[in-house]
From TrEMBL:
Pfam family, one: Bac_globin
Cofactor: binding details: Binds 1 heme group per subunit.
Organism listed in the record: Archangium gephyra
Top-level taxon: Bacteria
CDD domains: TrHb1_N
Residues that hold heme according to the record: H73
Gene3D superfamilies (UniProt xref): Globins
Needed co-factor(s): heme
Any one GO MF annotation of this record: metal ion binding
Keywords (A to Z) from UniProt: Heme, Iron, Metal-binding, Oxygen transport, Transport
Protein name (record): Group 1 truncated hemoglobin
Family under the similarity heading: Belongs to the truncated hemoglobin family. Group I subfamily.
Length: 124
């Protein structure tokens, strides 16, 4: 591990982001607290956007060109998404990375990057 490498590079690049998104959404959709937020959503599109977003957020190539986090989650906030749900998502992300044998320092980095978006995602 080299200190100048991005989280994206240290996690394993595009292949790892794809695996992460696939496993993550299986966990999210299996969670009764979160599943209702994803009803009637185009999951293929959502997974594609999530891969692009994570690649950008983790310092990978390309640029995320979707809506900003506040606008992207407005509908979910209107449906009642709160800190409880955000915490559940953080837990599923950490569990996914742990399942993929990502070490704790990198998981903590991913958690911190995600946590930094809490206010925007929850519309505060």
């Amino acid at each position: 591990m080299h200190a100048t490498q991005s989280l994206y590079e240290q996690l394993g690049g595009e292949e790892m982001v794809t695996k992460t998104v696939n496993i993550f959404y299986k966990k999210v959709l299996a969670d009764p607290r979160l599943r209702p937020f994803f009803e009637n959503m185009d999951m293929n599109r959502l997974e594609s956007m999530q891969r692009a977003f994570l690649s950008t957020a983790f310092g990978g190539p390309g640029a995320y060109s979707g809506r900003d986090m506040r606008r992207a989650h407005t509908r979910l906030v209107a449906l009642g998404m709160s800190d409880i749900h955000f915490d559940a998502v953080l837990g599923h992300l950490d569990g996914t990375l742990e399942e993929l044998a990502v070490g704790k320092p990198l998981r903590d980095w991913a958690q911190a990057l995600t946590e930094s978006l809490r206010k925007d995602i929850l519309g505060r």
